[in-house]
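Exercise 7b. Backbone tokens:
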């Protein structure tokens, strides 16, 4: 079973994908940003792992059942076997979830998760990737001042200028004032040009994001059709109730007689067995016990699975 691939596909659709009795992968949205060095990062979702969220929410089991063509109960059993294998490997190896990250034990024997960050789980950013914006250079304005005062025909002038009496300091001062004015003008217009180009680049990036989101499509596979033949049988009146129950299921049966036979066998073994709520597929569920207290049901489930090593699963009615 390709359970790791199914987890990666579900992270595109849900913010939390729980793996029963193991932990949960969570996604946190991050906005687009532009670094000081000109690196552009599109909107994305950051993946984390929380080992405290272990209660089965049904999302993973239902998805596996649809993909593999199994019933919900069989899908749960396959998931439990896979998780049992993960726990054994985790003691000496690193668990790798392609496209999601890696899980290993640290020196204190606690779970440590390292995201890969190679896959963007934000559907709105499909097709966008990180890129580096080229730096805008300020335009250089070269100036050349030519000052000449020549007169080849001095005879035509009323007077002849005396060049040797002009102070060179005044000439250099005038050139300096003109140069400072030109540099100030160049800095002002150059800075304004950079600001305008930055605004244009941001607008183009936003338009590209909107265009890619509108054209984005996802192919997560197609669901195979399953034909199920159901024979309706009357449901005992004691099964239907408004009371919320927490049951530990021993097995599911097509026939009510078989389910009752299983319940009677469990009662002889000392369990407070009963018929649980009928499944949407029309199966009758024989339970080791039905409780109004969730903690009692969980304690019985752990006792049966890990002490007696028997097959059982948890059901909230």
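Sequence design result:
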């Amino acid at each position: 079973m390709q359970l790791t691939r199914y987890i990666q596909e579900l992270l595109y659709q849900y913010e939390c994908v729980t793996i029963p009795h193991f932990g949960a992968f969570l996604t946190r949205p991050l906005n687009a940003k532009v670094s000081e060095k000109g690196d552009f990062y599109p909107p994305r979702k950051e993946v984390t792992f929380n080992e405290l969220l272990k209660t089965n929410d049904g999302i993973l089991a239902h998805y596996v059942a649809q993909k593999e063509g199994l019933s919900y109960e069989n899908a749960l059993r396959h998931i439990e076997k896979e998780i049992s294998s993960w726990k054994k490997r985790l003691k000496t190896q690193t668990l790798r979830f392609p496209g999601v990250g890696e899980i290993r034990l640290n020196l204190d024997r606690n779970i440590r998760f390292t995201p890969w960050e190679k896959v963007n789980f934000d559907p709105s950013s499909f097709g966008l990737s990180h890129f580096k914006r080229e730096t805008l250079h300020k335009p250089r304005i070269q100036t050349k001042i030519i000052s000449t005062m020549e007169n080849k025909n001095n005879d035509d002038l009323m007077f002849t200028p005396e060049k040797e009496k002009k102070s060179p300091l005044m000439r250099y001062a005038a050139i300096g004032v003109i140069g400072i004015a030109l540099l100030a003008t160049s800095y002002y217009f150059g800075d304004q040009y950079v600001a305008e180009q930055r605004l244009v680049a941001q607008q183009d990036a936003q338009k590209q994001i909107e265009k890619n989101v509108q054209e984005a499509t996802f192919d997560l596979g197609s669901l195979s059709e399953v034909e199920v033949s159901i024979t309706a049988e009357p449901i005992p009146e004691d099964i239907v109730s408004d009371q919320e129950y927490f049951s530990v299921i021993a097995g599911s049966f097509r026939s009510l007689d078989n389910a009752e036979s299983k319940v009677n066998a469990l009662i002889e073994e000392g369990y407070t067995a009963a018929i649980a709520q009928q499944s949407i597929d029309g199966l009758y569920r024989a339970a080791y016990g039905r409780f109004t207290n969730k903690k009692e049901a969980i304690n019985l489930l752990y006792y049966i699975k890990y002490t007696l090593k028997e097959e059982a699963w948890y059901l909230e009615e």
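Instructor comment: The longest strand covers residues 23-30. DSSP finds six helices and 13 strands in the chain.
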